[in-house]
Amino acid sequence: MNNLPENSSPSDLLTEPRYLLAEKQLASIPFWEPKKKGGKERSGVKVVSFTSMLQGEPVKLTLKVLAGGDYGFPNTTDLEFFRAFEQILTERLHQQGELNNPIAVTGREMLEAVDRVAGGTGYRELRRFFGKLHALAFEVERTQGHHYKTGRFHLFHAMYHEGEKREDGSVTEMNEIEVAPWYLKSLQAGNCLVIDHALFQRLSLSLSKLLHQFLHAQFHFHQGVASEWYADVANNWQMKEYSALSRIKQQLDPSHEELKRVGFLESWDYIPFKKSGKKAYQIRWKAGPQWVAMEQVQKAEFGFNVVQPSDQMLFLEAKQDQAEAGADPEGTLVSILDVVGSTDRKYLPFWKQVVRDLPRSVVYKALGDIRERLLKGERIKNKGSYLVTLMKLEAKKRDLPWAFKD
Questions:
Q1: Three-state DSSP class for 37?
Q2: What count of other Cβ atoms lies within 10 Å of the Cβ of residue 99?
Q3: In angstroms, what is the C-alpha Rg of the chain?
Q4: CA distances (Å), origin 45, targets 29, 55, 402
Q5: DSSP H helical segments within 97-191, as ranges?
Q6: 22: left (phi over 0), alpha (psi -120 to 50) or beta
Q7: Angle at 86 between CA 82 and CA 88, to 5 degrees
Q8: Residues 48-101: pLDDT tens digits?
């Protein structure tokens, strides 16, 4: 299983491959960002654009990514934790043959998977990762031909942190994550990419990790080549966009070179075009021998299709996710009570109106804001009253009658 092709370069042999399975459709979304030093996010909403394939037909996808509260968007540190989470899911899938909610994992297990010391800093980063993914929401716009549709989904529906008290008063011994059912079903159905986790962990630059994440899926969809407008790359990752080619190369080429050294990338080029009277650059990439090796493993040993994916698109999954949320509002209600206190039932009728009338992403964004403030050590005198105020503001934006009642 770990044999490399004959044309592997010496750099390919530095680390023994360690395979993980990444759900294919989620892996194609460029919602991660470089790790930033200081400062706050410019906005809690960003739009990422990319093209995927459905039975050989190009499908334009626009995703609105909503960050929860003060968490901000997932960065490359969070991507490292998510790769570790995928590694653990892969191992359990091989051992047990199936995955069931909730997914239970210890903090030590996660930190070991990312080669971090099991100490205060590592646990704080891990807790923040879980908080970000729990609060994160996606709104999907899909255009295929003349048809236009929209939907919404979450990846982590609910979770308890290690050592947190459940509604029944018991204390969790592990982190318990309720993962979106479509994600687990897709993973178990083999709708996956095979990724060399050891190679990913060798990367030292933030943009190298983001390019690896983005290009892995695009190479798979387009048989070892990929292209994207530089402007879209900069927008998706919320980087400074340059107009001069020399500055663009200065920004991206150190990561291109690192990916070439580990064998993931063979070549890249910047192609000039005129768009709306201005010069624009399209970046084109060609996969290296390490990616080719992974695709061979995917075909020969995992038996996954390496041609165009014929699986469900994100919109269909988002539609399913909305249906699940509508059919089971108790899950969102439990999440509210988990934050404000399950023993305080004074606002229960109000919470039921909130769950019924407001988008789930709005509710989880507010819950994420409260969790973040508490993690920072801020004191909220009455969490229930504070959340009522936030929800009434959202309801007033939508002219809901109950928002104007005292």
A1: coil
A2: 16
A3: 22
A4: 15, 31, 27
A5: 107-113, 120-135, 181-188
A6: beta
A7: 115
A8: 776 665 555 556 677 788 877 667 789 999 999 999 999 999 989 888 888 888
